Amino acid sequence: xxxxxxxxxxxxxxxxxxxxxxxGFRLLLVGLALGAAADTALRGMxxxxxxxxxxxxxxxxxxxxxxxxxxxxxxxxYGYVLAALVFGAGFAWRDAPVLKLLDFLGLVVSLxxxxxxxxxxxxxxxxxxxxxxxxxSMGHATVGPPLLATADADWSGLRLRSLPPLMLALGRGLAxxxxxLLIFAxxxxxxxxxxxxxxxxxxxxxxxxxAGHLVGIAxxxxxxxxxxxxxxxxxxxLDGFPARPSWLTVGRIEVGMLLGSLDLLFAAFVWxxxxxxxxxxxxxxxxxxxxxxxxxxxxFFELVAVAGLVLAVLLAxxxxxxxxxxxxxxxFGALAGGQVLLVFVMLASALERMRLYRxxxxxxxxxxxxxxxxxxxxxxxxxxxxxxLRDRRDLFARGLIGSAFLAVVVLNAxxxxxxxxxxxxxxxxxxxxxxxxxxxxxxxPALVETLPSLDPERRAFLEMELARRWSAPDRxxxxxxxxxxxxxxxxxAAAPGFGPRVPVTPEAPTGSE
Length: 513
What we know:
Layout: H1 3-16, H2 24-41, H3 49-69, H4 77-91, H5 97-115, H6 127-152, H7 165-191, H8 193-203, H9 207-232, H10 252-277, H11 281-288, H12 292-321, H13 326-361, H14 365-387, H15 393-414, H16 416-424, H17 433-436, H18 444-450, H19 456-469, H20 482-494
Helix pairs in contact: 2-3, 2-6, 2-9, 3-4, 3-9, 4-5, 4-15, 5-6, 5-15, 6-9, 7-8, 7-9, 10-13, 12-13, 12-14, 13-14, 14-15, 16-18
């Protein structure tokens, strides 16, 4: 054990007479400390530097406890630690809510895999096993604290009887009374303003705030302690995936019917695409009765959904059929490979539709992230061709996790909100200031660059909206991010150059459909 761990155990033995054979006390205390810190760092929104600091602290405690307890974690844990650090840093990098959500999901996945990484894990990687490991870690984080308190900490040696009876009774009374008293007082104070004022004058304490902090500390301590137990004390994390039921076994006929029918359907659709979409706007208007923009908008999201569903269908078909003979592998490879090639044509059609629509109406967050998702699905289809069709589903699973992690990092680097502003700045219909004002702080420097090119009405409207939205100070260091800092700098630099205000009507042109 390390010196710090020995000191902690000596303190526990001296003050309580308790032993810590499985580290239960240590994990509970570390979880409580992390929970108290998280209540401060994660209370304000949006999450920023506070989330980065808490991620780093959690990972540091987790690695220290694993080494101290002799947890036989697998070598892959360092890759998951690096991924979690990158996702945690994303909170202090960008301000866009979608990026923060993606960083949070990446953090959950990497922590779930880190908490279940063990040397004893056997068997090839698979998408199902990764899913089971992540869900198992999250489930264990939920039930871990009671296990720490009941199974991992030895309470039999507590020397409570050596305490004076009065002190023991007072301690029990405070433990039972104080939490409920604070919660009910806060609720009653919220229900009646006069009662709240009298209570505040009597106690000079914001009981509602105190109760909120107690709930926050309890929540984050529970999550932290549960995750630490999942990562440190589990000897054999849940990683199995149920075997394929025998009644799901199918042969060449069933697979041929399924994939062959889809291939014919996709081939017919691709033929239509070549004739109509790639044939020009006039042909679309003659046959479909739609404008080119309507045609492009109508089909883009449907094609993206088809591409995503095809990948799931192909993986499920390979898992059910499990081709083993040379003839089965050849048949499945031909049908699946042909289907992937047809889907690539559909993705090209979807990209062409989006290009046409973007040139007319510009970019939005939904359009940008949908295109990004489509690019990721296309990369997964390539990985599928060179892994699953070569009987290397384990490589596909690793490629899925790795490409997802890489995609989130690339999206952060691309700065989507700023890219949306710069793309929309030169639209024929004009710049949509009403949409631009709702973008995150990441877009502010690009918006300031765009201001001089706007007509007086749009410029005045956007200046007033930016001043209104960003006049309030940030909520302290936990909400700090580089994106918000750059936004403040850009606004401070541009403030002296703001032009005179002109009347702005609700019908001001937006430049969007």
